[in-house]
Amino acid sequence: MARAPGRGCRIEGAMSHDKIKEAARRRMAATGESYAAARRHVLAQYRAAGAGGEEGGGNGTPPGQPPTRPETTPPAPTGAPQRFAISYDGMGRFSRWADTALGGGPDGGRVEIHADELRLRMADFAVDVPRASVRAVAASSLRTRGTIGVHSRRGSWLANGSAHGLVEITIDPPCRTERCLSSFFARMEVKALIVSLVEPDGFIAAARGWLTPR
After folding, report:
1. Where is the composition biased (Gly residues) (predicted)?
2. Which of 19, 45, 75 is the last residue of a domain?
């Protein structure tokens, strides 16, 4: 008789990280949950079923989910937008207070995935990117060298409260910022956004499932 796996790393061993990530991504696309919530649900199902025993859906899918169809494009999120918090772990206390006063900070700074667009909000800095303009989403290797806040260079914008968890969003055709202090009250061009996120992997997985097929 097979032993039910324990908690933590044993679950990871019974089901590879890639499979967990893929199952969570499919659930996110179907339910609109955050990556963390979808991942917890996937792991809970595997614990309950002895890490994918006879109660599973076949083809390595978690219990209660249909078999994997590799060629099926995940549907767009429905209902409430998926929200991913901006990371502020590298921002000083005063700067964090000022950012919060302008609508950002740990409670307000965010990237949201809506059905038709992606929205970024950090303090008074606001960008709405049409879904069809999002060309790529990937982890960024940018070295910020102590830069914190909202900064731009030739259409590439850095919106960060941390040097870690950076994600780059490539935009084509470019969009425009809203009028705000960070853009000198002009609607400036945005070709790329680099954002520090609390859950960068969850955002990347959700955004890639949401992108319009090319």
Report:
1. 50-61
2. 75
- Each residue's pLDDT tens digit, 22-53: 777 777 766 666 777 777 777 777 666 654 44
Amino acid identity at 181: L
Question: Which residue, among 97, 150, 143, has the nearest Cα to 120 in the 3D structure?
Answer: 150
Q: Are residues 44 and 110 in the same domain?
A: no
Same domain, 7 and 88: no
DSSP-derived secondary structure for 78-140: -SSPEEEEBP-TTS-HHHHHHHHHTT-HHHH-EEEE-SSEEEEEETTEEEEEEGGGEEEEEE-
Domain count across the chain: 2
- For residue 125, which of 94, 104, 142 has the smallest C-alpha distance? 104
- The boundaries of the domain holding residue 44 are 1-75
> Is the backbone peptide bond immediately before 173 cis, with ω within 30 degrees of 0?
yes
- pLDDT tens, residue by residue, 2-22: 444 444 444 344 456 667 777
Task: Return all residues near 146 (Cβ < 8 A) that are at least 6 apart.
Answer: 163
Q: How far apart are CA 71 and CA 75, in angstroms?
A: 12
- Give the pairing type, strands 110-113 and 149-153: unpaired
